[in-house]
Amino acid sequence: MLHIVNGDSVAEKLRQGIVKGDILVWREVYPHGPVFLDPAALDNRSVRSLYLEHTMGIPRSEYIQGSETQEKVLADFHKYEEIVFWFEHDLFDQTMLCYLLHWFSGQPLLKTKLSLLCIGEYPGIELFRGLGQLSREQMETLSGTWKSIGAEELELGRAFWQAYAAQNPQLLQQLLSQDTSVLPFAHEAFQFHLSRFPSTHNGLGIVEQTTLAMIQAGINTPYELFEHVGNKLNALGMGDLQYWHILREMSQDPYPLIQGLQVFPAYNDSSVSFRDCEVALTDFGKSVLDGKEDWVAKKGIDEWYGGVHLQGYFPRWRWNSDEQTILDIGTEV
């Protein structure tokens, strides 16, 4: 058997005798940076590795080597009788799941069986953030409860990945209007993805909007913000490096929304502490939060949302939070 999991903490617990077989930690952050239908294509990998190095500090060589290593395991999947995916409800995991379903949908499975364990809650845990919260004993209760993946799951996973990697977010919105219950957590996760786009109200995505509201409510240190914003938007499954990038963008000239942050932790190095920094709204940030200013129209944007690259002061795609829909507002300038 091969067990594909979303993180090292889950892998370590599974290795403590919970399951038999090999374990592969799938190392990707698909909610961050450029995403392509075929991530393994040389040009696509180059673009993504450069972006991740620039925004998260992940060394290009480390990212490329890691990607190639895990792809080699996938390419040799026929050696396994069964492959089990261990994933959660959030966007971080659902994008992984859909990429893998997309990939396997194009392979002759022959005698290899695919199975899925995917949960969004666990008894006794009030706010379920992920499998990493569970003890070894709790993880053990999940072993063997996975369900077979059939043609419907493979087809829907492929459709989600194609829509997520597309340059037109309305393809994903159209997919969300259909019955996607065969992957029960995908709808909420990808709906949250669309809410990350700049809003028609003030140019903020849901993460920036929630962050400003939390600061206004009195939460004013980076780690507290990461905890509270992460809890409120737990369907995103947002990691700390993702969030530090967003905070950095929010604090940079011109037109910063927040002030008080100068130095951020480096990749794999938390020795630079900004734990005690106090974050405050700028006057401009207050105006944006009140809907009196539009951040993107003032500052411009250069961000990726799945396969969509938004640039300029008048990006084509905006999120209407009242109608919960993506709007096409014209050509980017």
Summarize this structure as a short list of keywords or feature phrases.
single chain; 333 residues; alpha/beta; Dna Topoisomerase Vi A Subunit, Chain: A, domain 2; Arc Repressor Mutant, subunit A; 2 domains; two-stranded antiparallel ribbon
What does this entry look like structurally?
The protein is of the alpha/beta class and 333 residues long. The protein has two domains: 2-167, Dna Topoisomerase Vi A Subunit, Chain: A, domain 2 (3-Layer(aba) Sandwich), CATH 3.40.1360.10; 195-328, Arc Repressor Mutant, subunit A, CATH 1.10.10. 41% of the residues lie in helices and 14% in strands. The chain is built from 13 helices and eleven strands. It has helices at 8-14, 42-56, 60-75, 91-105, 136-142, 151-164, 170-176, 186-194, 206-216, 222-232, 240-251, 283-289, 295-299, and strands spanning 2-5, 22-25, 82-88, 113-119, 147-148, 258-259, 280-281, 301-305, 308-312, 317-320, 325-328. The strands form four sheets. Strands 2-1-3-4-5 form a five-stranded mixed sheet, with helices on both faces. A two-stranded antiparallel ribbon has the order 6-7. Strands 8-9 form a two-stranded antiparallel ribbon. Strand 8 (301-305) and strand 9 (308-312) form a beta hairpin. The radius of gyration is 20 Å and the shape is globular. 35% of the residues are buried. The model has no long low-confidence stretch (mean pLDDT 96).
